[in-house]
């Protein structure tokens, strides 16, 4: 399994993708090199992804900063010691409080070992993560891509990625998650780099439209 760890890995993936796909080659001309965007794995990394679900980057970052101040050290045991009112004051929704408490309990009780997931294949990762209430395919995809650095990770259900693919490929409508899974096959084994390119493209087009 190829792991993305450095900018050199991103450059290698970008070169392979732009040589093989004219659509991504055009995207790259507009966006330039995509960012590395690696995050720590384990409880901290997964918690940050959960916090950012369905939020803008700015809103997610603000909530995360408040949580980091309220929870020290930032681990599962410390999270469970913080009362719900404090977590809600930090900006967490009731649903995310429940998801993060469920994750924290699973870690503390030994029901999931996030460290061991580094060596699991995609199917085992999905099974372990999505077995936890509140953690679905999108969260698992993003964790694999940015926390574990899987070069071929892909997020077919991500709305921004769907719009980026629609624009990049000149499609008449936004592709479904099922469509995205099919489209992404052409970009193996670097779908994680393709996603980074396309997210950059989405952000650039939004900025131009503003």
Output the CATH class name of the largest domain: Mainly Alpha
The structural class is: mainly alpha
Task: Please tally the β strands and state the result.
Answer: 0
How many structural units, i.e. domains? Answer: 2
Contiguous low-pLDDT stretches (5 residues minimum) are none
The CATH topology of the largest domain turns out to be Endonuclease III, domain 1
Mean pLDDT across the residues is 96
Shape: globular
Sheet with the most strands, sense and barrel status:
none
Rg, alpha carbons: 18 Å
Approximately how much helix is present in the residues? 55-70%
Provide the β-strand percentage band. Answer: under 5%
> Which architecture of the largest domain per CATH?
Orthogonal Bundle
The SSE order reads HHHHHHHHHHHH
- The CATH superfamily name of the largest domain is Hypothetical protein, domain 2
Quick overview of this protein structure:
The chain is mostly helical. It has 12 helices and no strands.
Structure explained in plain terms:
Its EC number is 3.2.2.21. GO terms for molecular function: alkylated DNA binding; DNA-3-methyladenine glycosylase activity; DNA-7-methylguanine glycosylase activity. It is an enzyme of class 3 (hydrolase). This is DNA-3-methyladenine glycosylase II. Keywords: DNA damage, DNA repair, Glycosidase, Hydrolase. The protein has 210 residues and is mainly α. It has 2 domains: 7-36 and 152-209, Orthogonal Bundle (Endonuclease Iii, domain 2), CATH 1.10.1670.40; 42-147, Endonuclease III, domain 1 (Orthogonal Bundle), CATH 1.10.340.30. Helices cover 63% and strands 0% of the residues. The chain has helices at residues 7-20, 22-31, 42-51, 57-70, 76-81, 84-89, 94-108, 122-130, 137-147, 159-169, 177-184, 191-209. Helix 2 (22-31) crosses helix 12 and helix 3 runs antiparallel to helix 7 (94-108). The protein is globular, with a radius of gyration of 18 Å. The termini are far apart. The relative contact order is 0.16.
């Amino acid at each position: 399994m190829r792991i993305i760890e450095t900018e050199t890995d991103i450059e290698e993936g970008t070169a392979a993708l732009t040589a093989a796909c004219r659509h991504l080659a055009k995207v790259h001309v507009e966006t330039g090199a995509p960012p590395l965007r690696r995050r720590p794995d384990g409880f901290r990394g997964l918690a940050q992804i959960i916090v950012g679900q369905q939020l803008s980057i700015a809103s997610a970052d603000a909530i995360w900063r408040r949580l980091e101040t309220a929870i020290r050290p930032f681990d599962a045991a410390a999270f469970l010691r913080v009362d719900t009112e404090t977590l809600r004051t930090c900006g967490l929704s009731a649903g995310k409080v429940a998801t993060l408490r469920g994750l924290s309990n699973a870690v503390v009780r030994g029901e999931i070992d996030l460290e061991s997931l580094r060596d699991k294949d995609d199917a085992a990762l999905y099974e372990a993560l999505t077995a936890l209430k509140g953690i679905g395919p999108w969260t698992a995809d993003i964790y694999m891509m940015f926390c574990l650095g899987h070069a071929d990770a892909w997020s077919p259900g991500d709305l921004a990625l769907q719009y980026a693919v629609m624009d990049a490929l000149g499609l008449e409508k936004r592709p479904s998650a099922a469509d995205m899974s099919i489209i992404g096959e052409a970009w193996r084994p670097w779908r994680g780099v393709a996603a980074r390119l396309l997210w950059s493209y989405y952000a650039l087009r939004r900025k131009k439209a503003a």
